[in-house]
Write a structure and sequence with these properties.
InterPro entries: Carbohydrate_kinase_pred_CS, CARKD, Nnr, Ribokinase-like, YjeF_N_dom, YjeF_N_dom_sf. Helix 2 crosses helix 3, helix 3 packs parallel to helix 4 and helix 15 packs across helix 16. Helix 4 links the parallel strand 3 and strand 4. By secondary structure, the protein is α/β, with parallel strands linked by helices. The chain folds into 2 domains: 221 residues, YjeF N-terminal domain (Rossmann fold, 3-Layer(aba) Sandwich), CATH 3.40.50; 265 residues, UDP-N-acetylmuramoyl-L-alanine:D-glutamate ligase (3-Layer(aba) Sandwich). 41% of the residues lie in helices and 15% in strands. An 11-stranded mixed sheet has the order 1-9-18-17-16-15-14-13-10-11-12. A 7-stranded parallel sheet has the order 4-3-2-5-6-7-8. The longest helix has 23 residues.
C-alpha cells in the first residue's frame, strides 16, 4: 500500500472528482458516510454524540456525519468552532443541509466559555482540522483541543481523517493534538500514523475505503509504502519441484558466546525454518555440544577460543557460503572485533548484521565503511542511535535512516511497532505485522536467522528484508494468538513460521 503525502492525498481527491466524475460535495458525502457506518457498527444510539466541527472540509465531514447519525436515531449535538469568518464551499453546503434536516442542537462556539457540558458516556467526534493542517494550533483553539483531551477519560474520542493538530507529514511533537481513542481515515495510511511519537494520539486507526481513483494511486510515485499481502506475493518465490538443498543456498551464521548460546540456537533454528538449504554455525567451543543437540540440522564450526568467536574470518576462501549472518550473542571482546574487521576486509557479499555486531560497528565507526553493499543492518532504536547519532523526533530519525541507507548503499531497518525499512533507492517500507508480545529476549535473533535464510535462497536484499520482517511479525501474531502476548517466547515465533508461510502470503 502506498503512503501518500497530504498534498498527494488532495491531488487524489481532485483527480477522482475530475475523472470519476463526482462532485466534491458527493465525495465528502461518501467519506462521511463510511465514518457514520463505522460509528453505527461500534456504538449504540443510546450514547449521545458531540461533533466538533471546524470551518473547512474536515468540519464538513463532521456535519454530514451529524446528519446521517440523526437519520438513524442518534442524538447528536453539533458544535461549530468559529475560528474563521470564512468556511469552505462544501462546509457551507453541508451546514445548510443539516439545518434543513435537523435544525436543533447546532451550537456555535466562539471561545472556550461556549464549550458545552457533556453527559456521561458521550461520544466526542473530532472534525476540527484534517490533513490540510500545516502549522501548530494555537490560542483558544488549542484550548478546545486541551478541553477535549481533559474529557477523554470519561468519554470516547473519535478523530476524523487524523487527530486535530496532528500534521500528516512532519512531526507534531509538543503541539496541541487531540488524543483519540479511534481515528477514522480514508483510503491510505498517513505517515503520521506510523510514528511512535503519535501512537498515544492516533489510538486505533481504521482506514476506510472511499473509492479514490485507482489510476491515480497506480501511477503516482511515493517513497513510503506499507507492506501488504499484495507486495509480499510479488516477492515470494514458490519452490521448484526439481530443486535440491543446494538450490536454497548455504548460509554461515556467526553467533554465540559463553552464556549467550541461546541467541545462536534461536537464530539457527529460524534460519532453517525460513528455508535455507544448508546452514553452518561458527561458534565458540563451549557452544559446540549445545548447538549439535539443540539443532541437529545445523553444521557446527568450533572456534579456536573456548568462550568467544575470535577466528571466524578464516576458512572463507572456498566461497561455499552465499551469505553470512553475524551478531546474535557474539559479545564485543577485542579479539571478536579484530576478527570482524578482518572478515569485513575479505567478504564482499551482502551480510546480515545484528546485535553485538552492530555494537562493534558503533564502537569502531571506521568499520562501517567496510560493510559490503546491499548488506542488511537490523538495529533497534538505541542501537541505531549508537551507530548514526540521535534525532530530535521520529520524522528526522526517518530522514537520517534513509540518508544512511542511501549514502552507504545498505538496507537498514529500524525496529518498532511499524518497523521501518530504508532502502538504497530512497524508498522506506513500514511493516504492519507483529505485536508487543514480540518485545522479548531472542526475538531479534530470530529475525536475523530468517533474513539470513532468505538471502541464502536467492532473494535480493530488498526482497529478503521486506518478506522476512513480514513473516517474523506474522509468526509473532500467530504465537500471540496461541499463547498470549504475555506468555509467548521467541521460540514460539519460530514455531509459527510454518503457518506464517501458509497463511501470511
Amino acid at each position: 500500500m502506498k503512503i501518500f503525502s497530504a498534498a498527494q492525498i488532495r491531488e487524489a481527491d481532485q483527480y477522482t472528482i475530475q475523472h470519476e466524475p463526482i462532485s466534491s460535495a458527493d465525495l465528502m458525502e461518501r467519506a462521511a458516510g463510511k465514518c457514520a457506518e463505522w460509528i453505527e457498527d461500534h456504538f449504540s444510539p443510546t450514547q449521545p454524540v458531540y461533533i466538533f466541527c471546524g470551518k473547512g472540509n474536515n468540519g464538513g465531514d463532521g456535519l454530514v456525519i451529524s446528519r446521517l447519525l440523526q437519520e438513524h436515531g442518534y442524538t447528536v449535538h453539533t458544535c461549530i468552532i468559529q475560528h474563521s469568518p470564512n468556511a469552505s464551499a462544501d462546509h457551507t453546503l453541508k451546514l445548510q443541509q443539516l439545518r434543513e434536516a435537523f435544525p436543533a442542537n447546532i451550537t456555535e462556539i466562539g471561545d472556550l466559555s461556549d464549550f458545552p457540558g457533556l453527559p456521561d458516556n458521550a461520544i466526542i467526534v473530532d472534525a476540527l482540522f484534517g490533513t490540510g493542517m500545516s502549522r501548530p494550533v494555537e490560542g483558544w483553539l488549542a484550548g478546545v483541543i486541551h478541553r477535549i483531551n481533559d474529557l477523554r477519560s470519561q468519554h470516547t474520542v473519535i478523530a476524523i481523517d487524523l487527530p486535530s493538530g496532528m500534521i500528516a507529514d512532519t512531526s507534531s511533537n509538543h503541539f496541541a493534538v487531540v488524543k483519540a481513542h479511534y481515528t477514522l481515515s480514508f483510503e491510505f495510511y498517513k505517515l503520521a500514523f506510523l510514528l511512535p511519537e503519535n501512537a498515544a494520539l492516533s489510538g486505533e486507526v481504521h482506514i476506510l475505503p472511499i473509492g479514490l481513483s485507482p489510476d491515480y494511486i497506480l501511477h503516482t510515485p511515493t517513497r513510503y509504502h506499507l507492506t501488504d499481502r499484495q507486495i509480499i506475493r510479488t516477492i515470494y518465490k514458490p519452490r521448484d519441484p526439481f530443486s535440491h538443498k543446494g538450490t536454497y543456498g548455504h548460509a554461515l551464521l556467526i553467533a554465540g558466546s559463553y552464556g549467550k548460546m541461546g541467541a545462536a540456537v534461536l537464530s539457527a533454528r529460524a534460519c532453517i525454518r525460513a528455508g535455507v538449504g544448508l546452514l553452518s554455525c561458527h561458534l565458540p567451543k563451549c557452544g559446540y555440544e549445545i548447538m549439535q543437540i539443540s539443532e541437529p540440522c545445523a553444521m557446527c564450526i568450533p572456534d579456536k577460543d573456548t568462550y568467544f568467536n575470535t577466528h571466524f574470518h578464516t576458512g572463507l576462501a572456498d566461497a561455499r557460503y552465499k551469505v553470512i549472518g553475524i551478531g546474535p550473542g557474539i559479545d564485543t571482546q577485542p579479539e571478536t572485533a579484530r576478527s570482524f574487521e578482518q572478515l569485513l576486509h575479505s567478504w564482499q557479499q551482502p551480510m546480515v548484521i545484528d546485535a553485538d555486531a552492530l555494537n562493534l560497528l558503533a564502537k569502531n565507526p571506521k568499520l562501517l565503511q567496510l560493510v559490503p553493499k546491499n548488506s542488511i543492518l537490523t538495529p533497534h532504536p538505541k542501537e541505531f542511535e549508537r551507530l548514526f547519532g540521535p534525532a530530535p523526533n521520529d520524522v528526522e530519525r526517518l530522514a537520517l535512516l534513509s540518508k544512511e541507507a542511501v549514502s552507504r548503499h545498505l538496507y537498514i531497518l529500524l525496529k518498532g511497532r511499524y518497523t521501518a525499512m530504508a532502502c538504497p533507492d530512497g524508498s522506506i517500507y513500514f511493516n504492519p505485522t507483529g505485536n508487543p508480545g514480540m518485545a522479548t529476549g531472542g526475538s531479534g535473533d530470530v529475525l536475523t536467522g530468517i533474513l539470513t535464510g532468505l538471502l541464502a535462497q536467492g532473494y535480493t536484499s530488498k526482497e529478503a528484508l521486506i518478506l522476512g520482517v513480514w513473516l517474523h511479525g506474522y509468526a509473532g501474531d500467530i504465537a500471540a494468538a496461541e499463547h498470549s502476548q504475555e506468555a509467548m517466547t521467541a521460540g514460539d515465533i519460530i514455531t509459527g513460521l510454518g503457518q506464517a508461510f501458509k497463511e501470511g502470503i
